[in-house]
Design brief:
Strand content: 5-15%
Strand order of the largest sheet: 4-3-2-5-6-7
Shape: globular
Distance between the termini: 52 Å
Number of strands: 15
Largest sheet: 6 strands, parallel
């Protein structure tokens, strides 16, 4: 039977092989087709941009932003608005055609001057330039043809299983990187070198001459730029908002109406907090936006109430009980029920058909007045839990505790650090991570970032000599902090290899930001990473074998088996 769609970019893909009828995430076949086409034309514009760079042209940062936002829109659970995806396809074609005209002009001038590869006097025009480009770069069809062509350009268009696997692994890593670039761009931080790589790598996935070895090398290079992208965002966030610090966050509620902000974009959080001052409306964070509480800048806002709820996948019940409007700033949207759909707002790369969207270009102040007015007419949130959670253990805060940490390691009070970063999800198999955290020896400390922490950050695991046993660095991009912490410990203990640290990696993954984090860790030389609850479906047996043989990548077993594996029989 012919597939209605094919997508296997997330951990929950059907049967751990691929969604072929409808996405587990809620993505329908017609939307999946348009997202495939958006990725395709984004590869095309990237190819043209790289050709221009080869001619010495500086590509406008607006083009770079278009490429990164396009990729971000196709991340799992980000943009469910089909018309928005179609509009993005058309805009990409328009901008790409402008770049083609510029490329033809430059090559024509160079040919006339004898500075091009072509013989002196060769006539170079748009037609001759197009003749040497791949189909994705030449794509210029009308919307009426989008559906038909989308069927031919998806994942399965690459027939060789291993080439397909590596192309998708690279593309998914670039999707994760694009998310981090988008957040840095929102704070007016850009890096042309990273953008140029992202577009060069996208273009390379169109090149049928590249071998498996070539693509393996490009995969590791993607990890290198993943580190650079996370560093760019870390610098952007800490320059704007200060370094995260140890913070106690309330998980109860107040009696005022509220707005719940979810996702990852700290600039959106800043603008929302600023505009809600004096309105009587409180602001609560949800899921990965919890990390906003850790930055000193945001503590001046008295109406910054606390964190409401848990990881993204519980949002249907939690958004229902919140009563007020919800602002989704990035991915992790679960298709809303009709009972609160009129209270779900999107902004940035997020979108859902039928929900109100708040626009705003980089550097502009978004207008949140409408969502604030809606909040004023809503009941306060229903309390679903009480208490506090502690976080804010990003690199600078942990460096400040370095002496205490080193003493604890040397004394044997801390015997091992366990990196349990990554993503949470709805599969029952993910309860493994709660049980694993509970089963850890009392001398083990968890280092975490991302929404995976909701599997254990509300457990009472205590502390070791005043050091909490769960050190939460923040969002998924703050896995960069965990890498810096590991490198700092390597330096302090004067080790030659990061893998000689008392450090193990047991990471949960869900979507493409976890992919770029994984590739970044591999680039940094980290080995023996365990991934769960399943290995990615997009890894062909041969590609998976490369990762196993070269980096020791492995899955998870039972809690009992893995505790013995990491800590021995005792």
């Amino acid at each position: 039977m012919e597939n209605k769609m094919f997508c296997y970019q997330c951990q929950e893909t059907a049967g751990c092989s691929g969604c072929t009828v409808s996405g587990v995430c809620g993505k329908k076949p017609d939307l999946a087709a348009m997202q495939d086409l958006l990725v395709y034309v984004t590869k095309g514009i990237s190819y043209v941009a790289e050709k221009l760079r080869g001619q010495g042209v500086v590509v406008d940062k607006e083009v770079n932003h278009l490429v990164s936002v396009n990729l971000f829109k196709t991340i799992t659970n980000a943009d469910f608005d089909k018309q928005d995806i179609i509009d993005s396809i058309k805009e990409t074609i328009r901008v790409k055609n402008e770049l083609l005209v510029k490329l033809a002009e430059i090559k024509g001038k160079n040919a006339a001057d004898g500075t091009d590869d072509a013989p002196v006097g060769t006539v170079v025009n748009a037609e001759t330039v197009l003749a040497g480009l791949p189909d994705a770069a030449r794509f210029d069809e009308s919307e009426e043809k989008f559906e038909e062509i989308a069927k031919t350009v998806g994942v399965l268009a690459t027939e060789n299983e291993d080439i397909r696997s590596l192309r998708e692994l690279i593309t998914y890593g670039l999707k994760g990187l694009s998310a981090y670039l988008k957040h840095a761009n929102a704070l007016l931080n850009d890096n042309e070198e990273i953008d140029a790589f992202l577009q060069r790598a996208l273009a390379a996935t169109l090149d049928d001459t590249l071998s498996v070895d070539d693509l393996v090398a490009l995969t590791l290079e993607t990890g290198k730029f993943g580190v650079a992208g996370m560093e760019l965002l870390d610098t952007a966030n800490t320059t704007a908002y200060g370094n995260p610090e140890i913070t106690t966050v309330n998980i109860g509620v107040r009696n005022n109406p509220g707005i719940l902000i979810s996702g990852h974009d700290l600039k959106d959080l800043e603008m929302l907090l600023e505009q809600t001052q004096g309105t009587g409306v409180d602001v609560y964070t949800h899921s990965e936006m919890l990390a906003g509480h850790y930055y000193p800048f945001f503590k001046k806002y008295e109406n910054f109430a606390g964190n409401y709820g848990n990881a993204w996948w519980k949002q249907r019940e939690e958004f229902e009980s919140f009563n007020g409007p919800i602002l989704m700033t990035t991915n992790c949207i679960v298709p809303p029920s009709d009972t609160y759909k009129d209270r779900l707002w999107t902004t940035g790369a997020a979108g859902f058909e039928g929900c109100k969207h708040i626009d705003g270009r980089y550097g502009e102040v978004k207008d949140f007045s409408a969502i604030i007015e809606q909040a004023k007419n809503c009941q306060p949130p229903v309390e679903i839990e009480t208490g506090e959670i502690v976080g804010g253990f990003a690199h600078e805060q942990v460096f400040a505790l370095a002496d205490k940490v080193v003493d604890a390691v040397k004394s044997g009070a801390i015997t091992k650090f366990v990196v349990m970063a990554g993503c949470d999800g709805r599969a029952a198999s993910r309860n493994y991570y709660t049980d694993f955290a509970k089963a850890l020896p009392e001398s083990a400390v968890i280092l975490t970032a991302g929404c995976a922490k909701y599997k254990y950050n509300k457990l009472n695991l205590g502390d070791i000599n005043g050091i909490p046993r769960v050190l939460d660095a923040g969002q998924c991009n703050d896995s960069y902090s965990l890498a810096l912490i590991a490198l700092k410990l390597k330096e302090i203990f004067e080790l030659d290899d990061i893998n000689d640290l008392p450090l193990v990696f047991n990471i949960a993954w869900y979507e493409q930001k976890a992919v770029i984090v994984l590739l970044a860790l591999l680039y940094l030389g980290v080995k023996n990473i365990h991934l769960g609850p399943t290995l990615p479906a997009f890894l062909s047996p041969n590609v998976a074998n490369v990762l196993v043989e070269n980096f020791g990548i492995a899955g998870i077993g039972t809690v009992e088996e893995d505790i013995k594996l990491f800590f021995g029989e005792n």
